Amino acid sequence: MLTIILLVLIGGLSAILGSLVGIGGGIIIVPTLVYLGVEHDLLNDITPQIAIGTSSVILIVTGLSSTLGYLKTKQVDVKNGSIFLFGLLPGSLIGTFISRYLTLDSFNLYFGIFLIFVAALLIVRNKLKPIKYFAKEKYEKTYIDAEGHTYHYHVPPFVAFATTLVIGLITGLFGIGGGALMTPLMLIVFRFPPHVAVGTSMMMIFFSSLMSSFGHIIQGHVAWGYALVLMISSFIGAQIGVKVNQQFKSNTVVTMLRTVLLLLGLYLVIKSLL
Which superkingdom (predicted)? Predict the structure, then answer.
């Protein structure tokens, strides 16, 4: 019973936070599963690979649930966002096979560094200016939101492929969906409007998670019993996150999230070095 309660809390809270700021929630699920399963034996048969694979499967549900919610409010640029899939999908699959070489110590070190990097991105994201170098007319895209506002931004295909290939590798390697990197990328490099970047990021998470889940499933890296409970709670949590996004300023949540990620990242790095 305690296990079910823990899984419901992990799935629900991670999905609420993840869909609220467009990062998916895997960045919270993976280290939590490792912490509870490997370090405290509260979850059976958990390894870093199984935590990563299970998270990838859950993020399919979180990504789908959030995407459906954001589609209703016209916050997903399906046409232009699909360009990112050419790099994201193969990168996600390759990353799943690299993950088999992670030991507990190497997982703690690399994932800890990654969390610190994401926390730093969240700290400076509002201070970073959009890059105008790629703002060439031939790359221009347009999108009309639910209120009828037309936005113009630029998506150079080669830059989109190269950057999302790297993000895909990280997605498959750590089971984090990629939203933690996709959202800042769309804001800073491709100059998406923030509300469209968050919604489109969740669509990217859905598709990248489908691909990375396939890679982890064929390697036997999924704890299906845990995944089922986490899927249900994540689906509900993601819907809550979408509604909160429309009514609540996300700055407070982002501040809390980046603080948690920074502390967790430092903890994992220190633990790997001891």
Answer: Bacteria
